[in-house]
Specification:
Order of helices and strands: HHHHHHHHH
Helix content: 55-70%
InterPro entries: Tcp11
Protein name: TCP11L2 isoform 5
Largest sheet: none
Shape: globular
Organism: Pongo abelii
Family: Belongs to the TCP11 family.
Distance between the termini: 114 Å
Strand content: under 5%
Structural class: mainly alpha
């Protein structure tokens, strides 16, 4: 029924079948768009509200850093040994006029001066000398092969620091005799290239200088042993 005097028009205001189809498709597309938008908004909200799942940073200790550095150094050394048939260890001497060289000389000289004053005191003090013989014993034992049990037992018996301390308490310790035994044993264990160094040790009279040079020659013997091991690996 028309209102307010309006006439109802048939055929002009009624939508056609094609218009109805396009309208239905538009509404369907709009509905799909709204659903997609709501889904995206929901996912974004869910992601933003969830806490970040990041693990805490791992703390690396100083020992781990140094161990890594040593491993890299060992790999470099192993590579050099493998590719360089002339590779061998050499004793590195610090320049005398360098700061490190002067500091090393001052510290070492101070140690040997203290040892000299202790051995010449009245009564003598032997504790530092005994500790040196203990260190010498361990170095000599490191040169022995697994089958050298006889010499091993002899070294442990002669350089028994507990026995030496008991002798020192009664002023019965023979420091020079112990040094002579060490030099003789070094002569049995050293490479032929060190024979001249052993002869010079035997000719040295001052006991403090003897002990000082014993450690110097032991350092050379350790280097010889390392080079022999490197040569055996090739």
């Amino acid at each position: 029924m028309p209102f307010n005097g309006e006439k109802q028009c048939v055929g002009e205001d009624q939508p056609s079948d094609s218009d109805s189809s396009r309208f239905s498709e538009s509404m369907t597309s709009l509905s799909d768009y709204e659903c997609s938008r709501q889904s995206f908004t929901s996912d974004s909200s869910s992601k933003s509200s969830s806490p970040a799942s990041t693990s805490p940073p791992r703390v690396v200790t100083f020992d781990e850093v140094m161990a890594t550095a040593r491993n890299l150094s060992n790999l470099t050394l192993a590579h050099e040994i493998a590719v360089n048939e002339n590779f061998q260890l050499k004793q590195e001497a610090l320049p005398e006029n360098s700061l490190a060289g002067r500091v090393k000389h001052i510290v070492h000289q101070a140690f040997w001066d203290v040892l000299d004053s202790e051995l010449n005191a009245d009564p003598p003090e032997f504790e530092h000398a005994i500790k040196l013989f203990e260190e010498i014993r361990e170095i000599l034992l490191s040169f022995l092969t697994p089958g050298g049990n006889r010499l091993r037992n002899q070294i442990c018996e002669v350089l028994d620091t507990d026995l030496i301390r008991q002798q020192a308490e009664h002023s019965a310790v023979d420091i020079q005799g112990l040094a002579n035994y060490v030099i003789s044993t070094m002569g049995k264990l050293c490479a032929p290239v060190r024979d001249n160094d052993i002869r010079e040790l035997k000719a040295t009279g001052n006991i403090v200088e003897v002990l000082r040079q014993i450690f110097h020659v032991l350092d050379l013997m350790e280097m010889d042993m390392a080079n022999f091991t490197i040569m055996s690996l090739r």
